[in-house]
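Hi support team,

I submitted a single chain yesterday and got back a structure, but I'm not sure I'm reading the token output correctly. Could someone confirm the output below corresponds to the sequence I sent? I've pasted both exactly as they appear in my results page.

Thanks,
R.
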Amino acid sequence: MITPWFGERLRPFDRFDKMMGQMLGDLPADELIWSPNIDVKETDKNLTFFAELPGMKLEDVNVSVDGHILSISGTRMSHKTEKGETMVRRECSCGKFERTFALDIEVKPEHITASFKDGVLEVSVPKTTVRNTKRIAVKAG
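Hi R., thanks for writing in. Yes, this is the structure output for that exact sequence:
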């Protein structure tokens, strides 16, 4: 089982400030925030994340795991305008994003795989029954 993790790298009010700045046009295009759609499928053996990232390149996508937190992040560039061109309508989402998920299962980070094809990122997180615990010896004195 997974749960969205809202302790993203931006504190909630910082994120709200950036979103308000984006809506009011106070942020440059490279600082815009967007959030891609992500589906999660669970089986007995793994969790699979499917992130819709149309128009993105492989080198602009990052996947990491830190303990029980899976992060998918990246940057989608906006459409550029040339001299003499004016953008008269902008609906395509662009800018930086980061989605984080708390994994409620034991995982082995070295077995996580990710592939990117046709604008869809697929991240497979195998489940394990082995807990990563370590007993700490207590010394006298």
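A quick pointer for reading it: Residues 12-23 form the longest helix (12 residues). Let us know if anything else looks off.

Best,
Support desk
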